[in-house]
Amino acid sequence: MTKKNLILLYGVLFSMVLSLFSCSSDDSSSSEDIPLSADIFQSTVGKKVAFQGLTNSATSWAWDFGDGTTSSEKNPVHVYSDGGYYTAKLTATSADGGSITKEVNLALDITPYVLLTGGATAESGKTWRISSGSSANDYFAYANAELTPFPGAPYPLPAGIFGSGLGMGEIYEDEFTFYFDGNYSHDVKADGAAFSGYLYQYVTTGGAGIVNGGGVDFGLCTGVFTPESGATFTYVESDNFETSSAIESSGTVSFNGVSTLSFSGTEFIGLLDFERRVIIQNITDKSMRLVMFLAASQDAIGVNTNAVILTFEAVE
Is 37-109 CATH 2.60.40.10? Predict the structure, then answer.
């Protein structure tokens, strides 16, 4: 047999062996069939997510992207209309009807507004309250451009000061809820009162609205408040905020390029006083720090003398 014929014979034999091996591997009755399994891999750019269904023995794929849309592709690409938190699910089904479901949590294009409201999928909104734990950045300030610490108050404010120090621990219970669509709700809890300015209560209610005057030395108290039905809020990411100031010679103080919150009607967050707009100094998924203004001088009714800078925590 020539060398050429020998090579040809080896080639035929190799093809036959390969064919036999292939037939054996595809035999559905084999005891070594791979069981149904599934996993998810994804890559994200902004609000665009490329999903890959990593499955074995699956014949169909059903995706639920967590925003009300679905797909039957094995490896779909989906663009979410809003940034936020989503849970995407893959259900893989085999030829015999067996199925398995896997899910993955996504945090897409998380803006400060999403951090504030919980995003488009947070049907109950996101709820905040004043943190009793306080922080190193919480303090009582003058209403000037530098927000200079007020020398008559502890700096920083110790944890739980409004409770153990001033006997107004109920202010840590009040809850403020922001919804992605701009709606706002407020729960004053059992006492029916809100953290408030002492002078504000005297000017607006003659003092009759004061429930707890434990913070009078700092111009603070709690006062009767009925939350507004159907309230809304406005968030501005970069605002040129101007408000009154009894400290500045101009009678006003400005903060440029700051994030602000304002509210409809009589609503507010944190502190009820003449100025109901607040500055967001910092916000994360779990906490935010606000600057709230207070008018505490009878010589300048309704004009800000101080700022109260407090940390709020997200209610789980």
Answer: yes
